[in-house]
Amino acid sequence: MLLGVSCSVREPASDTASEPASDAASEPASDAAGEPASDAALSIEEQLQLQEIADKKFEEQLQALSIEEQLQKMADRTFQELQSDPDSSPDSNRCDAHYGSAKEISLEDFVVGLQALVREVHHRDTYDYVTLGGERIRSGPFTLWMQQAFEDYLNDYKPPHRFDDTQFNLYDIRVDNVFSWRNYLRWRNAVCLVSVDDGPVRDSMVEHGRFSGWRTEWPGHAMKWQPYPYVDTGQMVVAAPAIRGLEHYTKYIAGGGVVITGGDDVPDAAMLQARKEVVYETSARPEYREILEENTVRISLFYGEDTSMLPEYHDIYEPGGFSTGPLDASMTANAQWLCFPGNIDRGGHPIFHEMVHTINHVVFEQLNETYFYERIYQLAERALESGVFKPGEQYLGSGDVAGKREWIGEYWATTVEGYLMDRAGFKYSHDTRDWIQANDPDLYDLIIRYFPTEPWDHCPEVPPDWQEN
Question: Residue 199: what pLDDT?
Fold first, then answer.
């Protein structure tokens, strides 16, 4: 019986196993909508008008297709965009103008300065929490801080135009990383589009990894895997679009701003249940769905022992699942741990739990949710010290058992998981809404700020008066 959390702290694996190429993408099943080639003689406005016409034509073509055909068409187009030359796009021309006052410096100075900037943001401690025992827990909108730092840096500096591919043996850079003009432009354009078009912050984080090699040893880094397109399928499981390296996923469903994929072994009932839970979990704050969608959040469902059966995580052995952040290809969840007709599970819930973490990493970081950062860990330590919060069992990637520091970090997702399930006995503590409101009222007030208060009938096959023997 699993009554604790449904995840463990994952640690990045080495990058020694074979991976798809950094531009891993779908094998086009058909030609995408024709787009006019950019013309250097055209103004930026004229180029953008042509792009808008091409986009509108593409959308019109999609309307006549089935959902599965739409998905494949959209995946094919993304593949072509990933393979295209960023130097010839109207976005590059706009971004040239946007950063027109930047000072040109040597490539090595540019990279060293960028590294120093990333380290400074990564170690920023504005919202860190120090426990009574002196342990530090990291917290804060690091994604937003990084985007702001990137924007400021690119306003000030640029490398030499069309520099040659170069390798550096510098701190925090993978030895095999090659700095290329093409990857620099992809990153610069992604940062730029956040400012000029309100584009997704995730893109600038992912493209920074592609350019700099920062933290790309993780096999599930999003730069290694093409994202899936989003089409709300309603209560219908459809065939997943063919994407290179991700052929394992044959099933697709989407809703609540999140794509869910699974292999042949994942029951349709589990796919439907996962979507139902995401839609419910995001129902109180529907504006979060747009952020999840634009950041291409996806759940990789698996039906087996651990995540190693998934192509993105072939050497990661996590039994329940883990969340996704701005640098990850997907969130994972063990479908066997869900409760759906034909599969009754009374323990921890990976969709609810990991989506809480994912909303924190993707949504809160982008919105700078200071109200949350300023409260959550103080509540956690107080509940743990008083014995109100009774953690279950959690094991770290090293095999060690989690201690106080880890459980303070897990308090939010674990208690919200219990709140959403709202079933007595399914957790060691915080198992029903009434219990949370009576025993941890400040936490209850924080939960209902973000999550639904409408009744939820989780796992109805289990009698309401069920209790663990």
Answer: 87
